[in-house]
Amino acid sequence: MAMKNPFKTTLIAPCGMNCAICMAFLREKNRCGGCRNPDRKCHINCTISACEKVRGKFCSPSCGEYPCKQLSHLDKRYRNKYGMSMLENLEAIRKNGIREFVKTERERWTCTTCGGTIDVHHRRCSACGKERK
Question: Which of 13, 16, 19, 118 lies 20 to 30 angstroms, CA to CA, from 48?
């Protein structure tokens, strides 16, 4: 059974991805611990998390290359395929702080039927399977 409401600040990746809604984090078998966790499974060689300018924080406009080619490509792919934007997430974190961002994400990605977490990649609840509109 999938966990309910795993939303926390430590699950927000440097690129702005909320790992709590990622299929790799939500799956039962071979589960990823999130981008900031040493046991992360997806994107082990991620150039964004490995970036010297990020250093455990978030991509930011204070970087002369923001948004870099990798972040721009990732953002475009997620906007088109999944209706979510890393750049919008990063802007919300900068504007309102990480705690407010996580609170908003919890509201946005919690299933209204069972309280489980919506999987951004499959657009359905990881607990009950209800599709997200």
Answer: 118
